[in-house]
Amino acid sequence: MADPATYRPAPGEIPTSPGVYRFRDEHGRVIYVGKAKNLRARLSNYFQDVANLHHRTQTMVTTAASVEWTVVGTEVEALALEYTWIKEFDPRFNVKYRDDKSYPYLAVTMGEEFPRAQVMRGAKRPGTRYFGPYGHAWAIRETLDLLLRVFPVRTCSAGVFKRAHQTGRPCLLGYIDKCSAPCVGRITPEDHKALAEDFCDFMAGDTQRFVRRLERKMNEAAAAMEYEAAARLRDDIAALQRATEKNAVVLGDGTDADVFALVGDELEAAVQVFHVRGGRIRGQRGWIVEKVEDVTDAELVEHLLQQVYGAAEEAVAADAGTRAGRDLARDAVPREVLVPVLPPDTDQVTTWLSGLRGARVDVRVPQRGDKKELAATVRANAEHALALHRTRRAGDLTTRSQALREIQEALELETAPLRIECYDVSHNQGTYQVASMVVFEDGLARKSEYRHFTVRGPDGDGAADDTAAMYEVISRRFKRYLSDRSRSGEVELALEADDVADGSDAAARRAERAAEAAGYVPRSGEVDPDAPVDRRARFAYPPNLVVVDGGPPQVAAAARALADLGSDDVALCGLAKRLEEVWLPGEEYPVILQRSSEGLYLLQRVRDEAHRFAIAQHRRQRSKGMTASALDDVPGLGPARRTALLKHFGSLKRLRAASVEEIASVRGMGERTAQAVVAALGGGTTDDRPSQDTPAQDEAAARA
User: Fold this and answer.
1) CATH number of the domain where residue 294 is located
2) Residue 220 lies in a domain
3) pLDDT tens-digit profile of 570-628?
4) CB neighbour burial string for 670-683, b if at least 16 within 10 angstroms, e if fewer
5) pLDDT tens digits, residue range 211-260?
6) What's the whole-model pTM score?
7) Looking at the structure, do residues 93 and 110 belong to the same domain, yes or no?
8) 659 vs 681: CA distance, rounded Å
9) Where a domain ends, among 41, 68, 97?
10) Does residue 601 sit in helix, strand or coil?
């Protein structure tokens, strides 16, 4: 635990300008990011008497080892930079928003030649119109099914579209008039794009224009006694009305607003937002906010607005100056943002949002009327979400804490294993050897940290057995980990074992020199604007416990790998199948956990997840290796060039009929390689023999 006085900047060193600051721990990881109108006044609050700070702020300043800052021109720039750094570094002590990327959108890819309507999640792409978010993907599909009757835009994937274009036959939707079939030329690209724009206008709230147009056509058809056409138009109008009725009308027609609500306590809060466009609820989303720092409701609202609208800034910037960019800005940032409490710097937030939208944005608290009633409804949803979360989390948190505590006691660890890494090796009689690494943090799977390993062996042909494979995998993993740790400034790596044990002054001096040589010394000061950005510095727990799938032989191999690397600060155990025995390195007898213990359940989940992950990768590797192609034996033709050739020509049959010049025109291909391909396939323009390959062989070659 560090003393804040040890890294406090010198008096007068901190500027009084607006800026963004970040605290780093002794390993160089960013643990907190904040902004300030006056950096000196703001940072001085952290270096007062620790006893006067909030307990979570106390934890942060005693965990940190240095503080650094960047001066910006305005408070708006500070707001944008703070959001960028929070997304980049994922600091441990900043507000955490959970379940943010699980909401689907109805997206129309207007940037393509033939726009496609589909369900999309995640980051927004340039040139794409988004509508939502929706609570469930099936709601988007129901809406699409209704609207395709009137707006038959393309919904198929690129593969289906290309296949239909090659065969000259549309897919099923083209035959049942739910697609205008641009793949076979039933509609020109210009007309199809205009159809997609009409679809987007309807989804954006301009519904009455299309309903009135269809009603006029229906009346004209009825007057001309074309009753079948009139009946079809009547059904189209009904489809549009059903699609419109799926969204409840809550406000007047021209009302565009986002309504936020916040309910919580000192530890966590539930956030709900209703997206209202054209007076109708377009979408709804919610988060559970973990308050890992001491923040007020006003500050939490400010962070929330950054979270919701910060991603739109990048998408709008990518399409700046285009119609798609303007439409995206208007849809992402409405005219009104209704919040339960105003953020501390309302003018700053308003200026930022107005810049994103390109027009005035009002951030206010609703006081009366329909908008206040809607805000109360949103708050009721937030209260229900928080109650449901507490009910689910109470048992889960208690169970995970109990499991970690039982593992700590059984393995005699100093602290609970906050980061558990488990390794498993999978192969078929020594072939297609792969290994997996799965990570559990705080008892929960962190799938972004999962890794695959291809076991090479000393000769590149794989390891001799499971123990050799385990030794290789552990060595590769921790060699990389120790290298990254040394670069980030963890000085213990450069010490001798005796120095670490006795903690002498000489060891401390050598530690400082090692840190300087590694390129990082915890210090406080201004960030050099020309310094390279360290994108490896996202916060993560160091590995506390390594679990291997196996018994004493696998554990001994892993222990030997760690010992050879000089890593003695990571606990190690193995979990053998069948008897579920926990083996420790060098122990003659296993550690027996109760069959009903939560600690054993957690170790089993980690082990089974590593086994599943390894098996999945092994099957993929084996499938690739068992797929043969006539191009496999062509000298100088690797996987990338094979893929490029098959993508360019579409099939092995067309490739066999191509000339040397046509093959050489493919990107990455040379004339010599093209001649080798023609010779291997026995084709070319000089040989008009029909192909002897079966469709199955062509398909196998395409997969290869």
Assistant:
1) 3.30.420
2) no
3) 888 988 876 778 888 888 888 888 777 888 888 888 888 888 888 888 888 777 666 56
4) eeebbebbbebbeb
5) 888 888 888 888 888 888 888 888 888 887 777 665 555 666 567 888 89
6) 0.53
7) no
8) 11
9) 97
10) helix
